[in-house]
Amino acid sequence: ISDKDTLLSFNRMFALIEAALELSGRPWLGLEIGSAETISNWGVLGYAIMSSATEREAMDIGARYYEAAATFMEIRTKLVDGRLRIQLDAIHPDRRFIPFCVEESITGICCVTSSFLIEPIKPLAIELTYPKPAYYQRYNDYFDCPICYERPNNVFWTRPITDAPLPTSDKISAATCLKLVEQLVERHLGEDDLIHALR
């Protein structure tokens, strides 16, 4: 796992998650993991995002190259009625782990972006595809916004992204990191196409 070239399959990752959920006794573990993430957890993609010139450029890079980071969700963004709609679609079909993946993704996005955005990303509303969990009160503690369950898609709404400059912007670092990100995505492209085609 500590080898920089190690790639774990989804099955192995989900076996680790399943064991962690069981051993911890905390079914809300996704919330805790996401809220402890830092920019370095997103790898070179995180640094490419952080060194972007503006919020909008950072969002575009994150949405376009999300595959370069260790993620379980495909991210789709669009502006709707003055709010940013972020849809999280599961890449892996095992629905048992959807709550963990959604929790980790939303809290991770909020936590990591707060390290380089002047105005952090916070959920204004959340829609979830699964039923209200027994630990739903923890959602209220973490998100402090309206939450709807058993909806068609996993979505969280937040403020619109602006053209505000990032205080962590660095043109040379951005170009270098973006090149590495493109190489990472290219490396996984053939495998992803095969997986999606078989599914």
Task: Give the tags.
single chain, 5 strands, 46% helix, 13% strand
Write the layout of secondary structure elements.
Layout: H1 10-24, H2 29-35, H3 43-50, H4 55-64, E1 73-80, E2 83-90, H5 98-113, E3 125-127, H6 136-143, E4 147-148, E5 154-158, H7 171-198
Parallel strand pairs: 3-4
Antiparallel strand pairs: 1-2, 2-5, 3-5
Helix pairs in contact: 2-5, 3-4, 3-7
Task: Describe this structure in a few short sentences.
The protein has seven helices and five strands, in the order ααααββαβαββα. The chain is an alpha+beta fold. Helix 6 links the parallel strand 3 (125-127) and strand 4.
Structure description:
This protein is α+β, with helices and mostly antiparallel strands. The protein has helices at residues 10-24, 29-35, 43-50, 55-64, 98-113, 136-143, 171-198; strands spanning 73-80, 83-90, 125-127, 147-148, 154-158. The protein has a five-stranded mixed sheet with strand order 1-2-5-3-4. The radius of gyration is 17 Å and the shape is globular. The two termini are 27 Å apart.
Radius of gyration: 17 Å
How far the N terminus sits from the C terminus, by CA atoms, comes to 27 Å
Strand order of the largest sheet: 1-2-5-3-4
**By helix and strand content, what is the structural category?**
alpha+beta
Per the principal axes of the C-alpha atoms, what is the gross shape? globular
Largest sheet: 5 strands, mixed
Q: Which spans of ≥5 residues are poorly predicted at pLDDT below 50? A: none
Q: Approximately how much helix is present in the residues?
A: 40-55%
Got a strand count? 5
